[in-house]
Design a protein that fits this description.
The chain is α/β, with parallel strands linked by helices and 496 residues long. It has helices at 4-15, 34-43, 58-67, 93-107, 136-156, 184-194, 203-211, 221-231, 273-283, 303-325, 336-339, 350-367, 379-383, 386-401, 407-410, 412-420, 427-432, 445-460, 465-485, 489-493; strands at 22-27, 51-54, 73-76, 111-115, 118-121, 124-130, 166-170, 198-202, 237-243, 245-247, 263-265, 293-297. The strands form 3 sheets. An 8-stranded parallel barrel has the order 1-2-3-4-7-8-9-12, surrounded by 6 helices. The protein has a two-stranded antiparallel ribbon with strand order 5-6. The protein has a two-stranded antiparallel sheet with strand order 10-11. The relative contact order is 0.14. Bound molecules: fe (ii) ion.
Length: 496
């Protein structure tokens, strides 16, 4: 048994090591070029209070630390699938953890931010973030995995002042659907009751929670935000993100007055004004007592748009951010209910992990269209299946065929030869999800695509083996050179 009051005190002890940062940016090293972006901001006297940097090569991150020696840095991790019950037994887990430690140290990072989301589950791979199953068991598992990662950081990471970075768990976006048995705010309260992590509240992600759950039919957005913040463990929010939203390229924008747009997370897109209204509602909330930083998340966006959006956001919010950061964080100021003694967690047994493995296997099969919608955590989805249908019939095929590497662009000869033989590329989607595949390498969607497409082509047209092998070799070589030479995975994969 763990005591959630002691857990919260541990969180506060760790939080004290993080100075207030104010407003900043969450960025990619290369897309757009980070040094050029900072120079342009400096020309406008808009140097960010801090930068949160997305995972890149350790060499690139080390260079950023050297070049931007006067700006505090934080780290946006990727690929540690802490929502997954079997992540710690993955053959890549220790290697991924080691790389994360090296990158945190090379940045002298204030924290590790990681989405509470996954791109690989039960042997199936996807290109963009999927939310966890919002169930009590899933919350216990993610908390246990975070505890392991935090222990590793405590042992192996050190900033100049001797403190270790704090794990921050980010509220993930919904892409048309959400599955679970408990409200999302309760899920995060269960997590924070049993592990001393902080949270990142992403305002655009919160908008997608409203858009793609049944609550939007019942209450206004403003009321939803108020009710969500009343239940969410806001006292653990250390950082706030605000990023762009946009309709998927396959979606049709609704006509004026015809309901909410089907926006999804889209960092290259402009930040909709409604998110700034929501941000204001969050910043003035009295339970927001641990805030250290607010970032516009602007990877893959044009420098011009970033500068304009950042200037406007600083002008409008810097005072409110300062006031929020100045709120008293002492435990005495918190309501007893925030410590949530009723939500004390049990340790995770092996049988629990196996149960959740089975749940995630069904999750992957349902969203890839191999299994019908069934099970307690899918009841709400079953009542209104349109969002999931859009995900599995339009979004996923697009992801496999075009996103993060367009197959016809990557394999022009093999694709042409397949077309000549009457093989439709859409069949590759079924091939991709035909059976689970054991994880053997750290997650990389571009390399996964190359490997799986080779298998697909050689199965459907064995005589194309040499042709497709040559194209695979060229792609892998170009990809390795691009990563070493400074172009990013992001540029090849478009967005995260
Ligand atoms: Fe975010």
């Amino acid at each position: 048994m763990v005591d959630s009051g002691l857990i919260h005190q541990d969180f506060q002890r760790r939080l004290r090591a993080i100075p207030a940062q104010g407003m900043g940016l969450s960025v990619d090293v290369y897309s757009p070029d980070l040094l050029e972006l900072v120079n342009r901001l400096r020309e406008r006297r808009l140097q960010p209070g801090y930068l949160e940097i997305f995972k890149a090569t350790t060499t690139a991150l080390t260079k950023v630390r050297q070049e931007l020696s006067d700006i505090p840095l934080a780290y946006h991790g990727e690929g540690l699938w802490i929502t997954q019950p079997d992540v710690q037994s993955s053959p890549c887990f220790q290697q991924d953890l080691g790389e994360m430690v090296r990158q945190l140290n090379s940045l002298q990072s204030l924290w590790l931010n990681h989405e509470c989301a996954v791109k690989q589950m039960a042997g199936y791979s996807f290109g963009t973030y999927l939310p966890p199953l919002y169930t009590p068991l899933s919350a216990r598992v993610v908390a246990a995995n975070i505890a392991t990662v935090q222990q590793t950081m405590d042992r192996q990471c050190a900033r100049a002042d001797g403190t270790a970075p704090l794990f921050l768990l980010e509220l993930p976006p919904l892409t048309y659907f959400s599955a679970g048995t408990i409200p999302i705010h309760d899920y995060f309260r269960l997590v924070t009751a049993s592990v001393p992590c902080g949270l990142v509240l992403d305002i655009g992600h919160l908008w997608t929670v409203y858009r793609y759950t049944a609550v939007r039919r019942r209450i206004s957005l403003e009321r939803f935000v108020a009710e969500f913040l009343a239940e969410f463990p806001l006292e653990r929010v250390v950082e706030i993100h605000v990023a762009g939203l946009a309709c998927h390229e396959l979606a049709v924008e609704p006509r004026e007055g015809q309901g909410l747009p089907e926006w999804i997370d889209a960092h290259a897109a402009p930040i909709p004004l409604i998110l700034f209204t929501m941000l204001e509602q969050v910043l003035v909330h009295p339970n927001l007592v641990s805030l250290r930083a607010v970032a516009l998340e602007v990877d893959t966006k044009s420098i011009e748009m970033i500068v304009e959006e950042y200037a406007a956001a600083v002008g409008r919010f810097s005072l409110l951010v300062q006031q929020a950061m100045a709120r008293d964080t002492s435990v005495g100021q918190l309501k007893e209910t925030m410590l949530c003694p009723a939500l004390v967690q049990e340790p995770v047994r092996q049988s629990d992990r196996q149960q959740l493995c089975d749940d995630y296997e069904r999750y992957a099969e349902i969203i890839s269209g191999q299994a019908p919608i069934a099970g307690l955590e899918w009841e709400e989805v079953a009542m209104e299946p349109g969002g999931l249908t859009r995900y599995r019939t339009a979004y996923v095929p697009h992801e496999i065929l075009h996103w993060g590497g367009d197959l016809e662009g990557m394999f022009p000869q093999a694709c042409q030869a397949l077309a000549d033989r009457g093989v439709c590329l859409a069949e590759f989607v079924d091939f991709w999800f035909r059976s689970p595949r054991p994880v053997t390498h750290s997650y990389d969607f571009f390399l996964l695509k190359i490997g799986r497409f080779f298998e697909f082509v050689t199965e459907r047209a064995p005589d194309l083996c040499v042709t497709v092998q040559q194209e695979c070799d060229l792609l892998r070589l170009a990809y390795a050179q691009a990563n070493e030479g400074g172009a990013s995975i992001m540029e090849m994969e478009q967005s995260r």
